[in-house]
Amino acid sequence: MSSSGLPPELVLLVGEQFRAPITGAASQGYGWRVVIEGDQDAITVETVGIPPERDVGAGSWEQELRITALVPGVARLQLTLARGSGRIREQYNTTVRVTTPQS
């Protein structure tokens, strides 16, 4: 990922959220694609554009990845930055383990 990277494995408690900056390249024709395998209902994944505080002219806004843990399970996440033509610029794979707090 652009500045922080996506680890190969994340462990989150139900209700926790992982957030990380990701490349914004919409002005170059790229968009993020998310594929979740395994326990698909364990997490939600969003790629969110963050509007600039002031007008920066043409260009892409910064982006943020948000993974929210919903229920216990193990999900495999593939995050791909690609053009409609299929050209891949970046691709990341991670396993997300969602657990409950120990009593």
Q: What do you see in this structure?
A:
The chain is mainly β and 103 residues long. It has one domain (9-99): Immunoglobulin-like (Sandwich), CATH 2.60.40.2020. The protein has strands at 9-13, 17-22, 30-38, 43-50, 62-69, 73-83, 88-99. The strands form two sheets. It has a four-stranded mixed β-sheet, with no helix packed on it. A three-stranded antiparallel β-sheet has the order 2-5-4, with no helix packed on it. Strand 6 (73-83) and strand 7 (88-99) form a beta hairpin. The protein is globular and about 45 Å long. The mean pLDDT is 85.
How many domains is the backbone divided into?
Answer: 1
- Number of strand elements: 7
CA radius of gyration is 15 Å
Helix content: under 10%
Shape: globular
Find the CATH topology: Immunoglobulin-like
Q: In whole angstroms, how far apart are the ends?
A: 35 Å
- Classify the secondary structure makeup into a structural class: mainly beta
Overall pLDDT score: 85
What CATH architecture would you give?
Sandwich
Q: Name the poorly predicted regions.
A: none
Strand order of the largest sheet: 1-7-6-3
Strand content: over 45%
| H and E string | EEEEEEE
CATH class category label: Mainly Beta
Number of helices: 0
The main sheet comes to: 4 strands, mixed
